[in-house]
Design brief:
single chain; about 0% strand
């Protein structure tokens, strides 16, 4: 979460100052990063391991 330069400090300062808009936006940014990284890992894993196939539901 706090690997981005200054993001951890920004979140903590925003919480301390009760700046809810900044807190909400930081949480949304971090959630989007997690979703995108998980998607990329799933796609790359399918390319790396040929045993994985997409099944139609």
């Amino acid at each position: 979460v706090f690997y981005l330069p200054g993001l951890g400090r920004l979140i903590f300062q925003s919480i301390a100052n009760r700046d809810l808009i900044v807190v909400r936006n930081c949480v949304m940014l971090l959630a989007a990063v997690v979703v995108i990284v998980n998607f990329v890992v799933d796609v790359l894993y399918a390319f790396i391991d040929p045993r994985i196939k997409v099944h139609n539901l």
